[in-house]
Design brief:
Layout: H1 2-58, H2 66-75, H3 83-107, H4 111-128, H5 132-147, H6 158-176, H7 181-209, H8 212-223, H9 226-244, H10 253-283, H11 290-313, H12 321-328, H13 339-358, H14 363-371
Helix pairs in contact: 1-2, 1-6, 1-7, 1-8, 2-3, 2-6, 3-4, 3-5, 3-6, 4-5, 7-8, 7-9, 7-10, 7-11, 8-10, 9-10, 10-13, 11-13, 12-13, 13-14
């Protein structure tokens, strides 16, 4: 009975440990998001408070709840605060509130009225403008106005006036306090690269100690880190769209294009890192090369940390290339015995190609560096398959 219970206990302990690892990683990434978006959140909150103050003290409205709602909804806390987008959202709120006020005055409130006003408000919004958020806000606000009694926020189109105040405040903030797209993209880039570095460092620690559980924990955290890379890519794409419609910010286009390329390479590096973490578990049982492979991964992790700082401060990435070139010179699979170690080395070669490209080399130049170590280097294409029975460099196929 005890022998049968042991596997269950070990499985339970593993599940709890992985849950704890995921929770810690989520909290860490959440903290980075808050720090990255702090300025956007603060300006939106101040705009909402200012809109409420204007409607309450200057216009004399007792409960101007739609003023701060319109201000915050129009601004949001994202990077995209193009005046056109903010204006569309503010107009959507204003149209929805006005239409809801008129409909409630004529037909009152109730479930049938709510269904009808929502359909009519969205149809009117789609007739006026094709923007999805314009129609969404018009529909939502019309429902809120019809559902709430006139005593909440005032009647007689008082709530519509409040919505206009909030929308105007949002436009003023968007035009006068534009967000620095470069700063947020650098912070996300630094966070994404840091996740890769932490994973590599933990895998190296697991290899050095021969502890497969440490490697499993590293893989668990790495699987939850993809969202950071995806957010980086989405942010840069959104920022590029915003700057191209804002002539004063066109000078940032070259920087953002470089960051988009770096984001693609970081995505490949993250996927290759996860494959490395999956395969490293086998190597924890191969004592012949644990120390050497751990040293290599620690060195790469250190380089990735330097890259994260360089991306975060716009430093010259080319200065970080020599360490990676030194690591590349140690990645000859023929110098390792046994298929587990050789497979891991091939995967690490693919990761190093991605990182060398981040420093400015082309893909062919980076692969030529590795070809010189004695083994042909297949191109890196990222991670697709499970870890068992596949030996390619992040592709799930044999090189």
């Amino acid at each position: 009975m005890a022998g049968a219970a042991d596997p269950t206990a070990r499985s339970s302990q593993t599940g709890l440990r992985q849950t704890w690892v995921r929770a810690r990683a989520r909290v860490r990434r959440g903290g980075r998001r808050v720090r990255s978006e702090a300025r956007a959140i603060l300006t939106a909150a101040l705009a909402a408070g200012a809109a409420y103050a204007i409607a309450h003290y200057a216009l004399g409205h007792p409960y101007p709840i739609f003023a701060p709602i319109a201000a915050f909804v129009s601004l949001g806390f994202g990077i995209d605060r193009r005046p056109r987008k903010v204006a569309e959202l503010a107009l959507g709120v204003s149209v929805g509130v006005a239409f809801g006020e008129l409909f409630a005055y004529l037909f009152g409130s109730g479930p049938v009225q709510i269904a009808v006003v929502l359909a009519l408000a969205v149809s009117l919004a789609r007739l006026v403008d094709g923007a999805t958020m314009f129609g969404m806000q018009a529909g939502v606000q019309s429902v809120v106005v019809v559902a709430l009694p006139a005593i909440v926020g005032g009647g007689g189109f008082t709530r519509w006036t409040d919505a206009l105040v909030g929308g105007s405040m949002a436009l003023l903030v968007a035009a006068g306090l534009p967000l620095d797209v470069r700063r947020r993209s650098r912070r996300l880039a630094e966070s994404g690269m840091t996740e890769i570095a932490l994973t590599l460092t933990d895998v190296a620690r697991g290899l050095r100690s021969g502890d497969g559980a440490v490697v499993d924990d590293a893989l668990t955290r790495a699987r939850g880190s993809q969202g950071v890379i995806d957010e980086w890519a989405d942010l840069v794409d959104t920022a590029l769209a915003a700057t191209r419609l804002t002539p004063a910010r066109l000078r940032h286009d070259d920087y953002l294009l470089r960051m988009r390329r770096a984001g693609v390479l970081a995505d490949r590096a993250m996927r290759n890192t996860r494959v490395i973490a999956r395969r490293a578990w086998v190597v924890t049982r191969d004592v012949a090369h644990q120390e050497e492979l751990a040293d290599i991964l620690e060195s790469i992790g250190h380089s990735v940390r330097e890259l994260s700082v360089a991306l975060g401060s716009s430093a010259e990435l080319i200065q970080l290339r020599p360490r990676l070139l030194e690591v590349a010179g140690r990645l000859d699979p023929q110098q390792f015995s046994g298929w587990p170690a050789q497979t891991l080395v091939v995967l690490v070669r693919s990761l190093v190609v991605d990182l060398l490209e981040l420093t400015g080399l082309t893909g062919s130049q980076a692969r030529e560096v590795l070809v010189g170590t004695g083994a042909p280097e297949p191109p890196s294409t990222g991670e697709t398959g499970p870890s068992t029975g596949q030996t390619g460099p992040g592709t799930g196929k044999t090189g």
